[in-house]
Amino acid sequence: MSRPTGRVLTLLELLQSGGTRTMRELADRLGVDGRTVRRYVDQLIDLDVPVESVRGRYGGYRLAPGYRLPPLMLSDDEAIAVLLGLVAGRRTGLTTATATASETAAAKIRRVLPERLARRLDTVLASLAFTEPPGEFAAPDGGVLLTLADAVRHRRPVSVRYTDRGGRRSDRTLHPYGVVAHEGRWYVTGADPGIGEERTLRLDRVTDARTLPGSFEAPTGPDPAQRVLSGFATAAYRHEVTLRIHGTVEQIRARLPASVARVADPALAADTDPATERWLLVELRAERLDWLPPVLASLDRPFTIERPGELRDLVIALADRLATHARDTAPR
């Protein structure tokens, strides 16, 4: 590669890092004078790279938005970071409905890597293991994701076509507060002005999203991620469980996270130390109860069951089985 060509590519890399680069900064980094910098900029413009000049005291050059993505200049660390991110995204299910997009993007980057770096990356991928099984979640449509994200940023209402878990389809208006990724799925949380309540929708069940005229005010209080977790804990299930557990919020959250249960202290004073163990109210909803007795046992904290009575019977039965097994001295 000739020296001037290498400097043009270095200029492109500097501009792609974002922001406005002053003439003096570019000249110093490239080791040339201002006239030569302008000549390099003209060469990039001839290649349809959207470079624009910025006037003023802190003016210089920057990349302008264009219809085509300019050639990417990635350092070794940046290339590895992008490829590992694509691999992890596919593994955890955080991809869009165009499942091949991450694969083709990774292939394009992998194809232009220097052989030395490609070998290093292959070594990383060959030695990489995940403790969780591959995600097998339905992915959202990329266009839907972008539309909702734009509506969140600009506080614009949207009309969505949604299919619930029972297979029923409906058109809804939503004031979206945020897009949340949780355990391999994408969700959008916001207010449904038609019913005056908050809703959390799975993005893979949204088949169409359109921005509507107008705007809305974002509410105060929990952030979107906390709203989604709270929605999981209060969703309609077969059983409503109320417990009193003696301990700290941190101890309880170790076994009953925010996506499963709500933890409250009705008598909490403003000056109460959160590390102080006390009786806390725990509420959750569940389709089945058989998983709860082992969780309560693993907490190893005093507790009482206010409802339902069926859970009390299951806990007693588990305690009897554990006591029986503990007394056995030899296999039967």
Care to describe what's here?
By secondary structure, the chain is of the alpha+beta class. The protein is built from 11 helices and 12 strands. The protein has helices at 3-16, 23-30, 34-46, 76-92, 100-112, 115-127, 142-154, 224-234, 249-253, 292-299, 309-327; strands at residues 21-22, 51-54, 60-63, 158-163, 169-182, 185-192, 197-202, 206-211, 239-247, 261-264, 278-286, 303-307. Strands 7-6-5-4-8 form a 5-stranded antiparallel β-sheet. A 4-stranded antiparallel β-sheet has the order 10-11-9-12. Helix 1 packs across helix 3 (34-46), helix 4 packs antiparallel against helix 5 and helix 10 (292-299) crosses helix 11 (309-327). It starts with a helix and ends in a 5-residue tail after the last helix.
Order of helices and strands: HEHHEEHHHHEEEEEHEHEEHEH
Q: Point out poorly predicted stretches.
A: none
What is the count of DSSP helices, taking H or I runs of 4+ residues? 11
Count the E strands. 12
Morphology: elongated
Mean pLDDT: 82
Biggest sheet strand order reads 7-6-5-4-8
Query: What about the largest sheet?
Result: 5 strands, antiparallel
- The portion of residues forming beta strands comes to 15-25%
Radius of gyration: 28 Å
What level of helicity do the residues show? 40-55%
Task: Give the termini distance in whole angstroms.
Answer: 78 Å
Structural class: alpha+beta
